[in-house]
Structure formats: structure tokens, C-alpha cells
Structure of Calcineurin-like phosphoesterase domain-containing protein:
Amino acid sequence: MKGFLTAAFLLIAAATSGVQSAPVAAAPTPFVIAVLPDTQYYSESYPEIYTNQTQWIVANAAARNIKFVIHEGDITNLNTPAQWKNAAKSMSYLTAGNGSKPTHTGNPESYGIGKTANNGVKVWEKMVRKHSNILMVLNGHMYDGADINSGRLTGTGDAGNQVYQMLADYQAGPNGGNGFLRLLTFDPAASTISVETYSPYTNESKTDDGNKFVYTGVNLLPLANKN
Ligand SMILES: *[C@@H]1O[C@H](CO)[C@@H](O)[C@H](O)[C@H]1NC(C)=O
Ligand SMILES: *[C@@H]1O[C@H](CO)[C@@H](O)[C@H](O)[C@H]1NC(C)=O
Ligand SMILES: *[C@@H]1O[C@H](CO)[C@@H](O)[C@H](O)[C@H]1NC(C)=O
């Protein structure tokens, strides 16, 4: 339980160069990865919102071709059994039927405790920039009491590869985030990753530049070939 601390980073590795040169068998279909940012206040005070998110994902998995669910940031606020119980119940809907499997990545900050902790810059310097097969980094938990909620940065790795880095964290908003989640649509044929921010709880979308955007010119064929 101590492993879940303050921020989570997800690394999506595109592929090895060997796979990259393989021929494409069929037109690759766009697919969606759903991202659940910091659910800590839902686990503490609004479990119905967390459940609303996961049930919506399951209900829309087929129609939207949602293939995977990722959690980023903190799952609980105070790491108590009661909050983990709430979180486990909300997450359980994802694995109950044919829904996508939830995953929560390791937290680089937890690899070093206190003063030696790795922050985003250190993770970039020590690891991300050095590996040409890292395509994307998802970040949560940038919270200082203000509703920062989004951020992004495209970096260039040592091998010249683009690394798409994005932050989403709505916990400072109403009701611990009001149910906003992210939908990343990977379209290998169009070479795009489209990012949307939607709340099934309020049925609203955030459409500002930080929360709705498209990366273009992204070579996703290695991912498509791996399917
Ligand atoms: C799982 O998938 C099968 C076949 O697509 C479908 O008949 C069934 O209703 C699904 N179950 C759930 C819980 O979604
Ligand atoms: C999510 O909550 C909203 C508002 O209460 C409701 O209209 C919607 O049906 C809920 N969706 C799911 C999947 O529970
Ligand atoms: C959500 O809002 C859209 C309009 O933005 C509307 O067409 C749709 O019916 C609403 N869905 C629900 C479940 O209320």
C-alpha cells in the first residue's frame, strides 16, 4: 500500500525497431485508452463518482473501442482500509465482465523516499529520454490546492524520438474532480492521438486547449502491428 504515493507515470513503449519495419496486414482500427486521474477524494468521500466512471467505461467499451484503462495519481487520499475498500469496489466493475483491465503504474517518486525521491525531471533525465521506444508519459497528482488540472509537454529523446507527456488531475475541482476522465484515441492510420476529457457524472466535456487536443504525425503502426 505504501507504494501508492503522490504521482504516477505511465510509459507506453511503441515497439522495437524490428517490429516497426514489419508490413501492415490490415488497416489498423482506432482504439481508445481510458485514463482515470487521481481518484483519491472519490475513494474518501464520493465513491459513487468513482463507480460512475468505471461503470460508464464498461458500458461504453464496445461502442468506443476502449481497450485498456489506466489509473494515474493517487487511488486513495489517506491510505486507510475504508478508502481502499471503496476504491476496490469501484474498480471491480472493470474486471467483472468483459471490461478492460485496470492498471496502475509504479510511482517513480516512491522508488526513493524523501529527499532522494525521483520527480518528473529526474525520471526524464535518468530514464525516459534514453529509451527511443517510449512514446508517451501520463502524469497525475500535480496538486497544490489550485485546480491546475492539465499540462503537457512534448520532449525529444536522445534518439530524436518524440515523447508526448501529459498531466491530468481534477481533484481540486468540485466533488473531488466531478468524474472527469480522459479518453485517448489512438488512430494508427491517421497517425494521431486525440485527447478528450469527459465526465460521465456531469455529462460535460472540458474543451479548453489543455484538455482537448490532438497530437499529429505520430507513428503508431508499431502499436497496431502488435495487436
Ligand atoms: C461479454 O461478451 C459476450 C460476447 O461478446 C457477451 O455476450 C456478454 O454479454 C458480455 N458480458 C458482459 C458482462 O459484458
Ligand atoms: C453517472 O451519473 C450521472 C449523474 O447522476 C447519471 O446520469 C449517469 O447515468 C451515471 N452513469 C452511470 C454509468 O452510472
Ligand atoms: C449528454 O449531453 C449531450 C449534449 O452535450 C446530450 O446529447 C446527451 O443526451 C447527454 N447524455 C446524457 C446521458 O444526459
User: Anything to note?
Assistant: Residues 155 and 208 are 22 Å apart (CA to CA).
